[in-house]
Design a protein that fits this description.
Elements lengths: L1 E2 L8 E3 L4 E6 L4 E7 L2 E7 L17 E5 L5 E10 L5 E17 L1 H4 L8 H6 L2 E9 L8 H8 L3 E5 H4 L6 H14 L3 E7 L11 H4 L3 H14 L4 H28 L5 H8 L19 H9 L6 E5 L5 H7 L7 H16 L7 E4 L14 H14 L6 E4 L16 H15 L9 E11 L2 E11 L5 E3 L22 E6 L6 E4 L3 E5 L2 E5 L6 E4 L9 E3 L8 E4 L1
Parallel strand pairs: 2-8, 8-11, 8-12, 9-11, 12-13, 13-14
Antiparallel strand pairs: 1-3, 3-6, 4-5, 4-7, 7-8, 9-10, 15-16, 16-21, 17-23, 18-19, 18-22, 20-21, 22-24
Amino acid sequence: MKLAAIFKDNMILQRDRKVRVFGWTESEDTLTISIDGIEVSGNVMPGGLASQDEMSLGVYDWMIELPSHEAGGPFDMTIKSEKTGEMATLTGILYGEVWINTGQSNIEFCLKDAKGGLEEIKNARFPEIRYYTVPNYPMVDAGLESFEEKTSWDSVDASCLFSGDISAIGYYYSVMLYQELGVPIGMIDCYKGGTSISCWMERSTLETMSEGRIYLDEYDAIIADQTDEEYQQIIDAFNKKNEEHDRIVAELLERKPDATKAEIFDAAGPYSWPPPLGRTSEFRPCGLVESMLKRVAPYTVKGAVFYQGEEDALRNLKMSSSGENTFYRNLLVRFIQELRRFFLDEDLPFIDIQLCQFIDYGAEDLRDWAYLREAQDYAINYSGLKNTYLVPLIDLGEYDNVHPLDKKTPGERVGQMILGIYGVQELPKYPDCNRIIEVKDFDGKITERLELRIANAEDGLEIRDNELIDLRHEQDDPDYNGAYGFEILVRDERTGDEIWVTPTLVTFGDNLITIKSDQEILGVSYGFFNYGKVNLYNSKGLPLKQFRVML
């Protein structure tokens, strides 16, 4: 009898729901699980879950459900084998609220490295907020089991926070939940920087999708004739190149701490990315879903927080060249459905953190991040899925830094969304163009005036300052204090091509935005770029969402 690695001392179990306990066995047996007066027995056998449809692709032999229990603790849990008499005892267990964090580097970003993180750590004393970090390991083998044996549920206090393995976003939202709900909070941290959404999806799922086949065909072609030795040589060369890049940058900054981005780029060149693929690559499709995500499913959780898309933005743009932005959208919808299947909850609340703003130094703005944000919006709000929620970050981001240091704002926005899901406070409603656009006609010609009605701005829109810079040079007047971020699609008078330009005038009042131009307007957008300044909010401080409407 062996428990899944996540079942450890000091774990937090989901309150007010049936709790699933699962693991492996080498022979038929009867297990009895006891906690706080609850006692449940179940027959187990090797491969015992293989015949159950929902677990046919799972990795465990048995699963026993415990009845729901209110918040509280600490309690001890015992798991006893009738056949051998063996008994495992887990101590310090709390019941509370449990969420899983997954995705790539911006959800992985550590509190100690975030803006204000070190100050936060000094005062972090939350023994009833605990987190379990899933090992970053690319394969299901003996090495993975060795790493899993070393895992633990850690409490949020200064000693463990300095170790650097807690998500900054997770920290901020968990503290909000703890302070508002007054119950223990548990987080399962299951993420890996630089990963595509395909890394977190099963091969059987990707094989049924045209979007998924693109990842698989590319990967299969790479590894077809590749030996393990060849892959190791390739990855060693890749790592050596980036180590040299980092060395050059470090030496330059030591000599000249105030070196500009241009000087750094000229000295070291670009950082190589993405890493080469191979059979043992962490970044291969369908890998981490097996060695990370499914190692903690179907642990009973209240919901999931997903922050991913950076790695898929450029591919999504290339696959959307026909004008239909459906590539990543379809993948995200299927991922949500698959995640819910893993955790045996078809209505599992799913929070998607929309990409913030970013562009590399000197890079052309291809709008690939804008298209990715649009795909996220459509998947969450217009695909027909229920219990899906979008957290916009269009007013956040740093030039030439894919990992912005402000993680408090996104963390607190996630916390607000979760509290809204619980009904503790009103569900945040971000202002958005509601797609009702009035085009006025004068003298038989479409004039240069649009009126955009904005939802969730009943008390009007207002300009608020933020740290975004006007990198796109929308305004030359240094004293300009109006709205930023709007573009209109017009026809170039010289070439006849359609181009996006800044409108002549943007005014707003109440929930109405008026756009004026001296050319015929073919479309209008807000924040539809990789990086630029936006500054419109509703009265509750929620930013106007990115939008793009073609006329």
